[in-house]
Design brief:
239 residues; alpha/beta; Rossmann fold; 2 domains; 5-stranded parallel β-sheet; two-stranded antiparallel sheet; 7 strands
């Protein structure tokens, strides 16, 4: 009986097909579409996944359990993900792997400076690339040995999650005081557009960000984004 109980308590061993088996990943990401992509990557790799969409929600998760891997998007609605990276990098005990994530490749330096072990540039859809990024950052003694299978599979997030992101932005654009959120809206849409391969939306988000940064009039950019967002929500209403 004791042997049977002991066998049930043994942590599952990673395999070549599921090299992250036994690991728990906390993904701090506000985009439903990007979160869905990370969920598929983690599950296909064998990892358990938890999700937080704000810094506040991430702190609530971290008070309850300690994940092995934390992946933090740098642009969050209640602050910069770099703040959380810095906090976790200096915490003891430290999580095994701490990764920054953004659709802006220039954000990699910010993530590394804050203490991240590595960086994921959106979009990431390759299962093999995701697994290698996590495995390469695992410390000695935790990293599984002899697992070098290269997986060329690509994951495809549910398009409903993408529409949920657009509905979220449509709500923000019509919220009183929404103008104060325009910088966040531009950043959020830019990341979502890159993840979804939506070049038209990405250009519109970049234009809004540029006009805001330079202090230029941005009313037409907001109107353009509102129209594009609505056009991407409309198909869901067709029965």
């Amino acid at each position: 009986m004791t042997d049977d109980l002991d066998s049930l308590m043994v942590a599952p061993m990673p395999t070549a097909d599921r090299p992250l088996l036994g690991l728990t990943v906390l993904v701090v990401e506000d985009s439903r579409f990007a979160s869905e992509a990370m969920r598929l990557l983690c599950l296909r790799s064998g990892a358990r996944i938890r999700r937080a969409d704000t810094l506040s929600a991430a702190h609530k998760h971290l008070r309850v359990y300690r994940p092995n891997v934390v992946i933090v998007d740098l642009g969050l609605p209640d602050g910069s993900g770099a703040e959380l990276i810095d906090e976790l990098a200096n915490a003891r005990p430290r999580v095994d792997v701490l990764l920054g994530m953004s659709g802006d490749s220039g954000a990699e330096a910010l993530a590394i400076a804050a203490g991240a072990d590595g960086f994921i540039e959106k979009p990431i859809s390759s299962l093999g690339a995701f697994q290698e990024r996590v495995l390469s950052c695992l410390p000695e003694g935790v990293r599984p040995e002899g697992l070098h299978a290269v997986n060329s599979d690509e994951i495809s997030p549910d398009p409903i999650a993408l529409q949920d992101d657009f509905v979220h932005i449509a709500d923000l654009l019509t919220t009183e005081g929404g103008e104060n959120l325009l910088d966040y809206i531009a950043q959020f849409l830019g990341g979502v557009a890159r993840t979804a391969g939506d070049a038209e939306m990405e250009v519109a988000a970049q234009a809004l960000a540029y006009h805001r940064e330079k202090g230029l009039p941005y009313g037409s950019e907001v109107a353009r984004i509102a129209g594009l967002v609505q056009s991407r929500i409309e198909p869901r209403k067709v029965v």
